[in-house]
Amino acid sequence: MPDRPDMAAALAAPPLTNLVRVGGEMFSWTEPVARDNPLLTHLSVELVGPGGTVLVAGPHPDELVTALTTGGAEVTWLLRSLTDAEQAARSHPAVTVLTGALGKADLTAGYDLVVATDGIQRLNSAEGDQLSAAELLDRLARAVRPGGALILMHDNQLGAHHTVRLDPGAGHRDDAAWRPAEAVDGPAARTQLTAALTGSGLEIGTAYAAFPEPSAPTVLIGGETLGDVASPLRPWLRTVLARAYTTAFRGRPVLSDPRRLIDRALRAGAEDTVAGGWLVIAHAPGDRDRPARRPDVLVGDEHGIRTPDAEIRTGQAPREPHGLRRAELVRPAAGYPLEERLLDLCAAADVRRLRQEIAQYESWLAGQSQDGLIDGPAALADLSDLGVTPDGPAVLSARWAPAEPIPTQTALVRALWQFAVRLATWARPHPWPITASAADLAAILTGMAGRSVTEEDLRAAVDLQVTIDAAEFGMTPAERRAHRLALLAVQPGTAPLDVAGYGELAEALWRQRYQASHLLAMMEWTEQIIASRDSQLSRMEWELRFHRSRVTGRALMAAKRAYRMIKSGPR
């Protein structure tokens, strides 16, 4: 229960003239709010101009409301928690705050824009009747004026974030703990969601599949690109989505690595089915001008919003932590992902073609360098960030580049060492299963590129990887030291170091047990061979003694000594 001010403080506080109680407000309740999402904020702000009216339905980040008011919009904010509504009214005196259930709010005046990027799950109140999902969607749609717009995020109950969730007791902590058991979560597919909004009189403008989670989407895919397995954006999308899920689920307990599920979905063109949610921008019929057609893919974070055309909208000043600089690169290209090809060749034990691919990569990397030094996105690009096009390797996506050039040898060893780490931690088959560590495997791969590796090269590569991870995830010095030790200790059977799912942990445990049983079997076999050879040597020794004790044996030994004397006589 949140802390409430005492009576004297409550009486002394100035009245909140911008707070309106509509009924059904929840008194002893407060809502967790997601962090500001620049992607959702940007899309919301561009839908309304100065002087427009906006309804923000449900809990949203303060940054979104501030951006709308700064743009000159007249904002009304609906919150079911009385405590949160009072705080919002104090923080945003220019905003009209409604507190209560959506079903009891009078929205007949209509709004130029209705923002519901938090979804519809938190628009009902425990203090009153529960509206169904269809009724909630209809009320939001009817709150849009002619020519206005609705931007809505809807959670996908079949999404990968739910499928891999490992959080015992979550059912007693979520809103579903007090919602009626027969309450539905709403449309279960993007087509059902758009059909519901169309049935309420809206026209669908854009419908995106949102990844990785509806509360914090960083990748939006829609239009013709969604589900198109022949799109040239596919290799790039696999890289972008893998990075998005790595960032979102790093250090979180999950049943299985969500990146594998998303990768399989992209291969099958089924990413819409396992998306975290769906973002729909719908318009009410009217004569107002609408924005130009939006790109099919949007990628955003706190540093800006990018499209496949490499358009960048800077969100914050570029950072240069730990000697690195931001290098937001988006370059879709036709071809195949290099890491995927290497994984397939390792599984097939095709050493000859594996050597060819690695040698081609080394040659390309050497061509990007000058005087043994390399800079730019190519210096820190992982093999998963590279694609092989008809013109050779190319960087498809990159986030960091060194502020100063680094040795080409370090860049090469780091890329191949990281690939070796993934082979080991993902339990992927390869032609060298008896290698003792990822460092040994990296040395083999680097040898395929025609280069030798020293202990200093490996440690420099690991230090560079720690620097990249520290810049990406904001690690403290203590976390950097622990991460470095963990990377140096990677060996067959080690669990993934970023997203350690229960399935991957079980796989690592099985692999360790398999290796232990294999070593025990080898020890037993070795002991049997030694015992067999000892038995044979004992038998031969007995036979030799037996023959020496006979007359014939003594004669043969005398003849042997005479032969040796005759042979050595002339000397």
UniProtKB/TrEMBL annotation:
This is Methyltransferase domain-containing protein. It comes from the Bacteria. InterPro entries: SAM-dependent_MTases_sf. It comes from Actinoplanes campanulatus.
